[in-house]
Amino acid sequence: PCRVAMCVGTCSRIVGPCLLVLGTLSVAANILLLFPGGTSKYLVEGHISKHAKAVPGIWGGGITVSIAACTESFLMCLWSGDKGMELVAPLHPPALPSMLSFPQLALLGAAACFIFSGVGLTNGPLCFYNASEHGHRHGTLWGYPFLDTVSQEPDARTENYLYDRRTWSTCLEPEGIVAWNVVLFSLLLLISAAEMVLASFQILNGCLGCLCGFCDGK
C-alpha cells in the first residue's frame, strides 16, 4: 500500500505540470488561428472563422485546464507536510471532492476544445473564394467554400478538403489559410486529446489516492 501511495503522490505532481504546459500550448495555437499569416488585418475586418473566434483553445483547453491543474497542484502542496512528509492515512472526506473535481473540470474543458476544434477542422476556413465555381450565382465572396459546396456529398467534400491539397487553392485570401487552419486545428485536437487522457488518468489516480492514502516518500 505504501508503494502504491507513493506512486499516486508522484503521478499527481507530474500530471499537473504536464496539463499546464499543454494548456499554454492550446492558448498559443488558438491565438495563432486569429492571425492568419501573422497579420491582424483579417481579425480587424472580421474575416476569421467562427470556430476560431469561439477560442475553444483559450477558454477550454487553455484557461480551464490550466486553472484546474494549478489549483490541484497547490492543494497537493497543502496536503504535503512541512518537511515533504505526506499524509499516511487515506485522504479525509473533505479532500475527496477537491481531489476529483479539478481533474473533471480539466476533462470538460479539454473535451469542449476537442469538439469545437473538430467542427472547425471539418467545416474548413473562412476565406475569399470564387463562389461561381461552387454553384452560386455570385462571384468572389467571403465564406466557407468547403462547407458551402452543393455539388458534392458531405463525405466526398470532407475527403477532398482534408486529403486532396489540390482543392486548397480554392481559397484566394488569406494566403495559405487552408494549411494554416488544418495545422492549427489539428494541433488543438492533439493537445486536447492528450489533456483528456491526462485528466482521466488523474481522476483514476485521485480515486486510488482516496482509497490508499499517502505515505512518507522514503
From TrEMBL:
It is a multi-pass membrane protein. InterPro entries: L6_membrane. GO terms for cellular component: membrane. It is found in: Membrane. Keywords: Membrane, Transmembrane, Transmembrane helix. Pfam families: L6_membrane. The chain crosses the membrane at residues 14-37, 57-79, 100-121, 177-198. The keyword Transmembrane applies. Belongs to the L6 tetraspanin family. This is Transmembrane 4 L6 family member 1.
